[in-house]
Fold this protein.
Amino acid sequence: MAATAIDRLATVQSDIRAAEAEHNRSAGSVTLVAVSKTFEAEEIRPVLEAGQRVFGENRVQEAMGKWPQLRTEFSDIQLHLIGPLQSNKAKEAVATFDVIHTIDREKIARALKAEMLAQGRDLPCFIQVNTGEEPQKAGIAPKEADAFIRLCREDIGLNVIGLMCIPPVEEAPGPHFALLEKIAARNGLTQLSMGMSSDYETAVSFGATHVRVGSAIFGGRG
Ligand SMILES: *Cc1c(COP(=O)(O)O)cnc(C)c1O
């Protein structure tokens, strides 16, 4: 019989627990963010029924279309925005999500803070770092990260809890994970959002606290 999303979820969870043990991380110190982008509510529901509560989506509009209903059916859902954000979507993003992983410029940081104040919601945030310095990719450049983290925390007053990265696809991810960890450590940040379907165990070995896993749970996105 073909593996289902529930089978694959169980495999990913046990891989994470094994990687925690292997790298002297305490059990449960890594949060699995199940990335449900492109999948319909009917495909997400079994994963919720299996107990998974933390999900990632990369588009505000898409998340608004399926999560309000799922939130009425299941309690304690935590929805993470892991995709790029435009400031004209800040209002919807703050209303729809519980955690933001992709803050990478002042304009979006200020727009989110204004909306959080307006809506009385103080969302934990990650700052995205473009560790590979890829011109087409979102994220603050590594050499600008310290100043940007300070700006977000001290001037803008965001609740910055950690850093996020997406390593270049054609490179070994380890050095990128190590760089992210180094920038976080020197800024006193403890949370690291890194690792996807192909490299989440490696990410755990480099200190990931949040792995964002999509296709290894839900299957290919076609
Ligand atoms: C789609 C996506 C993921 C999940 O990717 P998989 O390879 O399917 O696990 C993780 N992070 C971000 C930012 C994504 O856009």
About this structure: The chain is about 45% helix and 15% strand. The beta strands are 31-35, 54-57, 78-81, 99-103, 124-128, 159-164, 191-193, 210-213.
